[in-house]
Amino acid sequence: MAPTWVKQCFWTLAGTGAVYVLSVLALTIPVLQRNATYAHNINPAYWQNLSNVEQFGFVHHQVQPFTVRSTNNVTLHAWHILPAHLYREHKEKLINQPDFGLKPFDEAAEAVGLRLLLDEPNAKVVVSFHGNAAHIGSSHRPATYQQLLSTSTVEQPVHVVAFDYRGFGMSTGTPNEQGVIDDGIAVMSALCGSPDRLAATNRSPSLSHSSLQPSQIILVGQSLGTFISTATYHEWTIRLQQAPFKALILLASFSSLTKLLDSYSIKGFTPPLLSPLTQYPYVQNWIRQRIHDKWDTASRIKEMLTLPNMKLDLSIMHAKDDWEIPYHEGYMNWLAVEEAVNGTGTFTSTHEDLFYPEFTKSWVSDDGVKMVRWDKVRHGGHNRLPTSEHLKVILYDILERQ
Ligand SMILES: *[C@@H]1O[C@H](CO)[C@@H](O)[C@H](O)[C@H]1NC(C)=O
Ligand SMILES: *[C@@H]1O[C@H](CO)[C@@H](O)[C@H](O)[C@H]1NC(C)=O
Ligand SMILES: *[C@@H]1O[C@H](CO)[C@@H](O)[C@H](O)[C@H]1NC(C)=O
Fold it and tell me: Is residue 262, in this structure, part of any structural domain at all?
């Protein structure tokens, strides 16, 4: 007879193993998998009032809320945020709007705030694609918008548009890969009034507000948002044949969800899911094949880079102390760039050494139409990186380029 403590250990271990196996099996079910990866049901909008923007650090009527129609009868909830200097200049008119509030984009476009964006050809707008869980007003997100807005000048005003994907915050529906890409396209179509399949639902013929040029729009994605912003850029330019955007910035990116799970197990970082199965590659593959939403960023970047003449100004940035998505994941996107351009164009890189492991690599195509930059910074973790001065410096560089 084994001593009692041995039995206890055995049953504890067996119990842990059974829970692990059951959890992994459960996660192969699409609904549960999407709940775990998008985490959209962690939704503080159930108890927070997203219309009360003062609690998120903005001033009265600085934020014009609006809705955008997407595919599958989804209604997205979005914010247009004015830079503080424009708010100050137009404060009277902003706070005296009689019917201020949440409106469909076409009606909101007639409001004071959005007109300051749509009627100003020098204006730029950063569209924010947030990471998984919660909503546009959660945790570091408002601070990110404020950081982006702080690059605004009188000559070149910078506005922010933030939106929740389907199933997040006050947006209806439930997320899946094509759905959230459609959501990105829907927001771009609303802003640009573009003649694609979605514009019809977002545009009523009686209203004739101005629209933006894609070259006025900068996409910034963080974490999950790096995939959605890249896929939106890809679909917009390649499938819908629309003009390219001004730039794309990816913060804490990864090459694909399948690779993310892979590298966690192979390279020995915190093993969230598949590493206990390293001895069973057959089982690992079986699970990988059951990843429904692949979130493949790298192959989209590669495809965009191999298209001649299409403008692409891409910045990929990752913090060395990111413990949620290790920086080598973002670096895989840079490696995809190197592979795609196959020695063409011009590469530059700053000195990389052991004691100051912070560096930048960049690449410009021979015709100067495409440029990519990789920044590895020492601090910023996963969530503070978007609020960093590093991001601001990169944004200034982009705003300066014509
Ligand atoms: C949410 O906030 C807005 C703006 O402050 C306010 O008008 C509205 O009544 C609030 N809604 C609820 C349900 O408290
Ligand atoms: C579309 O969604 C709205 C509310 O979000 C709902 O009232 C309506 O029934 C839906 N229509 C269809 C065709 O599903
Ligand atoms: C990459 O470049 C090399 C040398 O210029 C060339 O031989 C090769 O075919 C290229 N590969 C691809 C996939 O374009």
Answer: no
Q: What is the value of pTM for the model shown? A: 0.90
Segment 55-90, tens digit of pLDDT: 999 999 999 999 999 999 999 999 999 999 999 999
Amino acid at the residue 289? Q
Cα→Cα distances 263→182, 222, 271, 277, Å: 29, 19, 9, 13
Which stretches of 171-297 are DSSP H helices? 177-192, 199-202, 224-234, 257-266, 281-288
**Do the domain assignments include residue 265?**
no
Q: What percent of the chain has pLDDT over 90?
A: 64
4 lines ligand 1 (CB under 6 A): no
Compute CA 150 distance to the chain's CA centroid, rounded to the nearest angstrom: 20
Which ligand neighbours the alpha carbon of 342 most closely? 3
**What count of Cα atoms within 13 Å lies in the side-chain half-sphere of residue 195?**
2
Rounded (10°) angle between helices 327-341 and 298-306: 30
- Residue for token pair 């930048």: 360
Q: Which domain holds residue 277?
A: 1-38+272-293
**pLDDT per position as a tens digit, 183-194:** 999 999 999 986
Report the separation in Å between the CA atom of 71 and the middle of ligand 2, taken as the mean of its atom positions.
12
Are 140 and 14 part of one and the same domain? Answer: no
| Ligand 3 center to 342 CA (angstroms) | 6
Please state, in angstroms and rounded to a whole number, the distance separating the CA atoms of residues 120 and 236: 23
Ligand 3 pocket, mutate which of 303, 342, 344, 366 (most atoms under 8 A from CB): 342
Q: Are residues 285 and 355 in the same domain?
A: no
| 69-73, 196-200, 278-282, 293-297, range with greatest mean pLDDT | 69-73
- What is the distance in A from the centroid of ligand 3 to the CA of 305? 15
103-125 tens-digit pLDDT: 999 999 999 999 999 999 999 99
The total number of structural domains that make up the chain: 2
